[in-house]
Amino acid sequence: xxxxxxxxxxxxxxxxxxxxxxxACEHRILVIVExxxxxxxxxxxxxxxxxxxxxxTRVVALGxxxxxxxxxxYFQRYVPYLPASGEFVIFNRSWYNRAGVERVMGFCSExxxxxxxxxxxxxxxxxxxxxxxxxKYFLDIDKSEQQQRFLAREQDPLANWKISPIDREAQxxxxxxxxxxxxxxxxxxxxxxxxxxxxxxxxxxxxxxxxKSLLSSLDYEGKDEALLKADSKIIQRYKPEMRDTGFxxx
Amino acid sequence: xxxxxxxxxxxxxxxxxxxxxxxACEHRILVIVExxxxxxxxxxxxxxxxxxxxxxTRVVALGxxxxxxxxxxYFQRYVPYLPASGEFVIFNRSWYNRAGVERVMGFCSExxxxxxxxxxxxxxxxxxxxxxxxxKYFLDIDKSEQQQRFLAREQDPLANWKISPIDREAQxxxxxxxxxxxxxxxxxxxxxxxxxxxxxxxxxxxxxxxxKSLLSSLDYEGKDEALLKADSKIIQRYKPEMRDTGFxxx
Amino acid sequence: xxxxxxxxxxxxxxxxxxxxxxxACEHRILVIVExxxxxxxxxxxxxxxxxxxxxxTRVVALGxxxxxxxxxxYFQRYVPYLPASGEFVIFNRSWYNRAGVERVMGFCSExxxxxxxxxxxxxxxxxxxxxxxxxKYFLDIDKSEQQQRFLAREQDPLANWKISPIDREAQxxxxxxxxxxxxxxxxxxxxxxxxxxxxxxxxxxxxxxxxKSLLSSLDYEGKDEALLKADSKIIQRYKPEMRDTGFxxx
Amino acid sequence: xxxxxxxxxxxxxxxxxxxxxxxACEHRILVIVExxxxxxxxxxxxxxxxxxxxxxTRVVALGxxxxxxxxxxYFQRYVPYLPASGEFVIFNRSWYNRAGVERVMGFCSExxxxxxxxxxxxxxxxxxxxxxxxxKYFLDIDKSEQQQRFLAREQDPLANWKISPIDREAQxxxxxxxxxxxxxxxxxxxxxxxxxxxxxxxxxxxxxxxxKSLLSSLDYEGKDEALLKADSKIIQRYKPEMRDTGFxxx
Lengths: 250, 250, 250, 250
Ligand SMILES: Nc1ncnc2c1ncn2[C@@H]1O[C@H](COP(=O)(O)OP(=O)(O)O)[C@@H](O)[C@H]1O
Ligand SMILES: Nc1ncnc2c1ncn2[C@@H]1O[C@H](COP(=O)(O)OP(=O)(O)O)[C@@H](O)[C@H]1O
Ligand SMILES: Nc1ncnc2c1ncn2[C@@H]1O[C@H](COP(=O)(O)OP(=O)(O)O)[C@@H](O)[C@H]1O
Ligand SMILES: Nc1ncnc2c1ncn2[C@@H]1O[C@H](COP(=O)(O)O)[C@@H](O)[C@H]1O
Fold this sequence. Notes:
- Chains A, B, C, D: InterPro entries: P-loop_NTPase (IPR027417), Polyphosphate_phosphotransfera (IPR016898), PPK2-related (IPR022488), PPK2_PA0141 (IPR022486).
- Chains A, B, C, D: It comes from Zhongshania antarctica.
- Chains A, B, C, D: GO terms for molecular function: polyphosphate kinase activity.
- Chains A, B, C, D: This is ADP/GDP-polyphosphate phosphotransferase.
- Four copies of one chain form a homotetramer.
- Chain A is an alpha/beta fold and 250 residues long.
- Chain A has one domain: P-loop containing nucleotide triphosphate hydrolases (Rossmann fold, 3-Layer(aba) Sandwich).
- Helices cover 45% and strands 14% of the residues of chain A.
- Chain A has a six-stranded mixed β-sheet, sandwiched between helices.
- In chain A, strand 2, helix 3 and strand 3 form a beta-alpha-beta unit.
- In chain A, helix 1 packs parallel to helix 9.
- Chain A is globular and about 45 Å long.
- Chains in contact: A-B, A-D, B-C, C-D.
- Chains C and D meet through helix 5 of C and helix 5 of D.
- One adenosine-5'-diphosphate binds next to helix 4 and helix 7 of chain D.
């Protein structure tokens, strides 16, 4: 635990260096964090941004689409939040909602779902061509771990109001979410915008390794490589075999 | 002249029908109007929207990009103005500025210019795939016609303030603009998002024929086809030969 | 008629001078145009802005308040549209909706209505103290004139779609609107933000006189005073007696 | 220390109750947190919002005014962030910048400064009349405490980038800031929108007492009064005598 705190602190110092470098070079970074309910998205994002400059850092967690959003190009509502020069933007959930919660909960039609997969690769390609460094992380937990986290939340007066109706159905819909996740990874992983998967049953290990992976994938001045060796039992680039090896939860 | 007014009125009634149909069907339309300074963009747009419902109609004429705009994805500042369901949006100038005024005046780098041509086709494809009906019109006038219009403006106390520094150089840069136009048409015309060229020396003919062309290219209830025969001496889909036949001004 | 065109043109040249002066001095102007349905608000505003610089001119016609608007400070949704330095802003309808259509149609509560009158004077005072030049015009027509205009609209295929359900009840609610207007004028007229009333049965006279009044109330370079004598049978500063003298329609 | 954690946790449970009540009743709350650099504004705000619902909670820390902001009504840029029904908004610094940093650093003119004091009371009155519950807190630290905090920041690699040029002059300008604070409190404290002062040399005591004061000043269901006794050595409503009693630092 002290170990965790020390490592986290060292990594956060690296993040500060990274940001300083990116601001100076006017680079732009977009990190997408996906994962089921209670997978730990909020927690890792909190550690990522904790010591960064608020002016150049933005965490984007859009609510459900408005009526007007639904009347426009699916990606449109995300576009104003894309990073400008020097900005570090994190999407807590993203356009991949269409392939996850919208698919499972029936919030989009079959046709919209299929169209999403046709459009997501060219869309991301375009952002990357425009100079955005895109990183896509998927936090994966087991069914029993999710259940335990929900139970803990329910008992915590500081957290129980956070449980949404959608959360309540997450366990029931477990298999559907697994299937949707598999489809999403299969159809939106590619060399230009690859997915990185994180075993997230252990929160601390997940946070540490996501940050290591992010840092080691980007160039910046004063990088301390020795700190950045990620644990391949926790984090790996997506591979189709993952479903069989158990790296992805059933 | 009375003839013009009558025809225009009849076409505007068609536009009202078109809009009513599009609102009911939740269709979306985006019309791009391009052309040199003084080509008559404002005039034709005024007639297009004159009797349409303001709530569902939007004319977008963005000023020069802000510092923040320049720090983002080139297309980003246009995205919030794209049509939602039922909306009729007209861009008075557009992302094609990069291939025209920005190229000629040196407002963008060679690399940005080249990148624009790589990205514009996939970008437009994406909008079309998302259900937007895109129409691209280029108003083309002769060098002497432009000069005359500038002179008329200068003498008109209600118009002379409109003359911008960029306008003042339009005649001097005539050949550069012709060249930029040729490149733009050659590299951004395709079957999915074709350019339509309008000989615009005669303002009234240009207006009438653009509206006819737009109406006949779209489906709507109660369409009066007899009204919509455009004059091929005035308006034609872009063809590479146009430069040689004189349909495009030198 | 030719007379009208000539005078209008001369006044529009004055408006261009006014704007040029205001842009140079970084002054700010806000014109509120109120009046019943079909009183001619759109028409006069069109002539006001016809030859002004679009970049520094803004016509604001807000739709009905959104759910979020209704959850905020009543004036909040208008604030982003207030003029910045050098800007000329015209509100086509305004916060006075609360004292007019919202009152008559029952879109606000009695309490909200009363609160509006408590707040409108300090709010306008604040804007004026901050350097905004505020002008408030009320276009007043007779009941029969309104009816005729509605009939004309219904027969015009280019205008009939504009007739809203609220318009349709305007004749039935005539007396209620008269009463609401009287209350509004009585309770929101003061020396700092006075109302100016325009007899608007004659559209051309209304337009000419509103523009004259506006111009003569503001200082600008090169002002041609001779042009600006308004007709006191058409336009007058609000006075309580107006209801009795028939200057305000019953 | 464990004590602190326990009390804080208990108070945060109260904050959750408060928010639930406010959401249900559609109440609106605006908390202004002011104080010199390093007074601990960020820290207390972090504890306030830690467990609140992000959708209904907003922390607003505006950067320096843009050129456009400076061309508008001084309060204008704050208005879009005011709370809607059910929202809990915290301003980390606020319009009082004009009376503090802008005054001391010379970012506004004498006339703007004086005008601010004329306008701030009616402006706040208006917000309160519109149903916003406004609370204004001023965190006050000693000169030596500020210096120590700056030194600690400089030595911390996770914090040193946060030190702005304005911070660097805070010690030099100490007396000017004290004077500006005194003027601000004297001229903007009133019964409708009173200031509450917090001795903030001890961070934990400051946080605990601010939260207690806020909670006890608002009505909500299930309030645990026993928890909310604030310490009058730490927190008091502003009184002119405070400057002499040493409650406000010299
Ligand atoms: N520095 C610049 N960088 C990019 N585009 C610019 C720049 N300055 C002007 N433009 C664009 O050039 C176009 C022509 O400008 P101008 O002749 O002033 O306006 P208009 O023809 O629309 O009245 C406009 O679309 C404007 O946005
Ligand atoms: N439910 C509502 N609540 C408040 N205002 C409304 C409501 N419905 C319409 N209005 C307002 O009433 C005014 C008149 O409506 P309408 O006649 O439809 O529009 P217009 O006269 O602007 O064409 C508009 O300013 C509109 O915003
Ligand atoms: N030129 C300026 N004009 C007005 N306000 C300014 C200006 N520069 C900075 N400020 C304001 O001064 C305050 C203090 O600035 P700074 O110490 O840099 O930020 P912070 O204390 O919020 O980290 C901020 O609210 C900022 O908006
Ligand atoms: N009706 C809906 N349509 C689309 N997305 C939704 C809808 N309702 C909720 N969501 C999304 O589902 C995700 C999980 O919701 P929640 O658990 O309520 O935070 C969020 O990203 C929501 O934006």
